[in-house]
């Protein structure tokens, strides 16, 4: 694979918003195209991939993955030459609790200075990914708006923000389920969140994503998870056009399935390890699985954004919309 020109800007497709929106599946699919490197949730490389010796989505520990070894050698002279614990500590100096400060550009710049040299080390990482893999687009599914603020400040990155949203009642249902985290240790469980924490996360992160990125012409695209699974060919094509690439999902489809080959995501949902034929289906389990009081609580705490994103507030309306989308899905369903 050819080495990218050293003076080229690094094109990054950043998938932002909240967790449990189906971003891992989308990252894996986009990562199948030539010229795309799916890095997964790169913001967590330091905490989980290096400090906790987590596994790359190819199945190997990050430190043993040949692709990541080349990247870390190019960026830092090897994994043992970067202090992962220090990177985690510095990153906490610019976290979600600091989002209100970003209203002021001056305070935002001070926050960036406060977490140095973290931004500089991150820039070296993305540059090394670009140069060692020769890919034209890096997919970063970190989702956190404040982390995208750091990336946007780096002059060598050419950043595009894909705002992925989902019905918050579906997100609430997903956060309640028990998921085994296959990336670290044996039997570790993924974080679970109740309705109150989920709703606060949903409201703050999605509002911040819009405030930070929607005013930037040509750098912001919003996509609903439900629209993606209803017509994935169109959604993926639109994403390609957004970043100036051609992503033709139909070329990857066989009998309405996408054959997923290993990528090199640093972190993310456990389905990042999935291989082989994958059918893109609408996951509407929340309709019957989320208790009524939780549905009402999630709706009460997120309704302004639900209306903004076109989600019916009533249970009957949501059921009808999902039923219609299942019957008109392009792939799977």
Describe the structure.
The protein is of the alpha/beta class and 333 residues long. The chain has one domain: 3-Layer(aba) Sandwich (Rossmann fold), CATH 3.40.50.300. It is 44% helix and 12% strand. It contains 14 helices and eight strands. It has helices spanning 23-30, 45-51, 66-76, 84-91, 105-114, 118-133, 145-152, 168-176, 195-213, 225-230, 232-242, 286-289, 292-308, 315-327, and strands at 10-17, 36-38, 137-143, 157-165, 220-224, 253-254, 257-260, 276-278. The strands form two sheets. It has a five-stranded parallel β-sheet with strand order 2-3-1-4-5, sandwiched between helices. The protein has a three-stranded antiparallel β-sheet with strand order 6-7-8, with no helix packed on it. A hairpin with a 2-residue loop joins strand 6 and strand 7. Helix 2 (45-51) runs antiparallel to helix 4 (84-91), helix 3 crosses helix 6 (118-133) and helix 8 packs across helix 9 (195-213). It is globular.
Shape: globular
Mean pLDDT across residues:
92
Strand order of the largest sheet: 2-3-1-4-5
Q: Do you know the CATH topology?
A: Rossmann fold
Helical stretch count? 14
Query: Regarding CATH, which class?
Result: Alpha Beta
Q: What is the rounded distance between the termini?
A: 37 Å
Question: For the CA atoms, what is the radius of gyration?
Answer: 19 Å
Helix content: 40-55%
**Main sheet properties:** 5 strands, parallel
What is the CATH homology-level superfamily? Answer: P-loop containing nucleotide triphosphate hydrolases
**Could you spell the SSE succession in H and E letters?**
EHEHHHHHEHEHHEHHEEEHHH
Portion of residues in beta strands equals: 5-15%
**Which architecture does the CATH hierarchy give at level 2?**
3-Layer(aba) Sandwich
